[in-house]
């Protein structure tokens, strides 16, 4: 019985980030819901395990076409690379760069930070955990 309880607890711990509702809306520093054309996260059905973060550029503006967004990805299984896409490295145990600043945008306890390297990566911070998600140079064709 003890082994079963331990296995169940390990499964919950390993689920970690995967348990987050990525379709939930982001909010700004004042707690207002941010429209999806400003900031959005989603899981694409065609890319198992990957989570996409779309940020209107310049930050905080509303966009009218996909070209005005920076696409960042959390793809721990490397699915996009196996498709031949060029994807920078995902760092799930990153350190914030000195240039990184809190944007004020939140998804629950998760905060979006950007630095001078925003053309290459975004930082997602939750408590002491920092992840550096690479920016995609090309968009995927499914959502």
Write down the overall geometry. Answer: globular
Mean pLDDT: 86
How many distinct helices?
Answer: 2
How would a crystallographer describe the biggest sheet?
4 strands, antiparallel
Helix/strand structural class: alpha+beta
Q: What percent strand?
A: 25-35%
Rg from alpha-carbon coordinates: 16 Å
Q: Could you state the order of secondary-structure elements as H and E?
A: HEEEHEEEE
The domain count comes to 1
Secondary structure: number of strands: 7
Spatial strand order of the main sheet: 4-5-6-7
Q: Which residues form runs of ≥5 with pLDDT under 50?
A: 1-18
Portion of residues in helices? 10-25%
Distance between the termini: 42 Å
Descriptive overview:
By secondary structure, the chain is an alpha+beta fold. The chain has one domain (20-134). It is built from 2 helices and 7 strands, in the order H-E-E-E-H-E-E-E-E. The chain has helices at residues 2-15, 79-82, and strands at residues 39-43, 51-56, 69-74, 101-107, 110-114, 121-126, 129-134. The radius of gyration is 16 Å and the shape is globular. The termini are far apart.
